[in-house]
Amino acid sequence: MNRQAVKAWLLDLLYPNRCGCCGAFIPWNGLLCPDCAASLTPAALCSHCGKMPCTGEDKLPYSRVYAAYAYKDRARDGILSLKRGNNLNFAVHLGRMLGERIPAAAYDCIVPVPMSGRRIRERGYNQAERIGAAIGASIGLPVRQDCLIQRQSDIRQHDLGARERREHAKLYEASGHKLEGMRILLCDDVLTTGSTAQRCAALLRQMGAADVALAVGCSVVGKTHTEHDRSNQAKEK
Ligand SMILES: [Zn+2]
Ligand SMILES: [Zn+2]
């Protein structure tokens, strides 16, 4: 064991490692328990819109979508665990999964969907940035957090319906940097209505990006948006 591994092993005695999805205790060097690892199956999501079935939308500001899982079952548990701010293992797992499919040579950098400063202070991190960093580590792309800004808001996005989400997406703004000719991989944790990703992709194009593709951990499928909101609210209570 090298020094780093000894440190991780010792830390594990104090803070035992847990599965990124269900929270079960796992070995210090693992990310998921065997049960969750076996039941996470990649979904056949459309590479154009990121949905299943395809929405048929043809005017999307991103050229393609890389999505690891449908937002349900263990994958959904993993995202919720990330959002609660207590376990980053699922972000690392998603980074590796997505990294296997994304051709590094096709992009210049990764831009995570930003989070307002106050929300980051509450949670300790921006989960989109953590997933982006994990993709970057697996395929060797830099992460840029200086391209987009999220203005502060008291509204939690998962409480919103589709129309309100489009309004809420206006809180995302361009930083003003020039991105002339850059090929960008925009990254977020969950693709819901797509209003956030579309707004951010459109801003990156306005800043000069030659190509914007989207990488998301999970995509909401098989349920109407309202049902998704309702079950989320039930879970919060
Ligand atoms: Zn598990
Ligand atoms: Zn599609």
Q: Could you estimate the helical fraction of the residues in percent?
A: 25-40%
Overall CATH class of the largest domain: Alpha Beta
Evaluate the radius of gyration: 18 Å
How many alpha or pi helices? 9
CATH architecture identity of the largest domain: 3-Layer(aba) Sandwich
- What is the number of domains? 2
CATH topology of the largest domain: Rossmann fold
Listing every helix as H and every strand as E from the N terminus to the C terminus, the arrangement reads HHEHHEHHEHEEHEH
Large-scale geometry: globular
Mean pLDDT: 89
Distance between the termini: 45 Å
List each distinct ligand once: zinc ion
Category by helix and strand content:
alpha/beta
Question: Low-confidence runs (pLDDT<50, min 5 residues)?
Answer: 224-231, 233-237
Q: Provide the β-strand percentage band.
A: 5-15%
For the sheet with most strands, the description reads: 4 strands, parallel
Total strands? 6
- Order of strands, main sheet, comes to 1-6-5-2
